[in-house]
Amino acid sequence: MSESPATSSRPRVLSGMRPTGKLHLGNYMGALANWVKLQDSGQFECYFFIADWHALTTDYADTSNFLSNTREVILDYLAAGLDPAKSVLFTQSHVPAHAELHLLLSMITSVGWLERVPSYKEQQENLVGKDLSTYGFLGYPLLQAADILMYQPKYVPVGQDQAAHVELTREVARRFNNLYQLNGRDVLPEPDVLLTPSPKLPGTDGRKMSKSYGNTIMLTDPEPEVRQKLKTMVTDPARIRRKDPGDPDKCPVGDLHKVFSTPETLAKVYEGCRSAGIGCIECKGWAADALVQVLDPIQERRAKYTPNEVEDILKDGANRARNRAEQTMTEVRTAMQLIPAAK
Ligand code: TRP
Ligand code: SF4
Prior knowledge:
By secondary structure, the chain is mostly helical. It has 13 helices and five strands.
């Protein structure tokens, strides 16, 4: 059995994702694979959660996929190798204390801080057709701060796109600690961002792999679909005919090889592409081989979990997360003098 999180003395790590539905290879390389590494290093007490309330900040008008999206994402977490015996895996909305901490932190957070978070204006402009002039959307980085500070983590492993949110989290923690102390000490230590090194992972159209571009390879794509997607993938535009030499450094398929292929295959790709010794079809076949090797064990694990097992995992994770959250909340309420100090 795993060590009880409440008694473990390892530094804590916390991260999460909003449930956007089934995850793709970009999500895997940009987050999940790194989380699994942190988990398996055994150095940290790990908390990984699904930020389901965060989905409401942009998709409040249509919640019909709310439950199924969460379910797909937890399955992808498990498929990627997150292990409930090693990490606390839970859903945000199962731990209502996140809402309480968000509320308390909202009292000390200036509106200007939230308006200045770069994603605020960007997303309002990008997500056309959604009215994002809501209180919840403005406040979502603060909800994220509550998600984080709740577990008093040392590190928050996220991609560069989330770094500003961790910075806000640190600012809010600082203000909290300046205003409120518990027996002369800080209650909410400032966490450090642990930037996930994210290799360039192009989608089938050569742009960054992203759900919104429709260019993804899903973790659940069966082998024939992976091969089919690779076939339609764009290549070095200079390589028009079979006899034209190409350059893997200018080719999205080359980028995939760099991430997933063995050094031997990669050497064959460079040599064969530059000398026009291989065709793109052959080269794409090798890339597909490498992807299938990564996806196979993920899909095998995914298929093993029954709905009941997943439910039990989330129930157990919620219990453990709630226990840990309650410790922090007792400290927070006490420091704020909302409840009397324990005798
Ligand atoms: N905002 C993150 C995203 O869009 C998800 C998230 C919510 C998160 N709370 C968090 C990530 C806390 C790390 C820590 O993916
Ligand atoms: Fe890209 Fe491979 Fe074709 Fe070269 S041979 S252009 S690396 S797909």
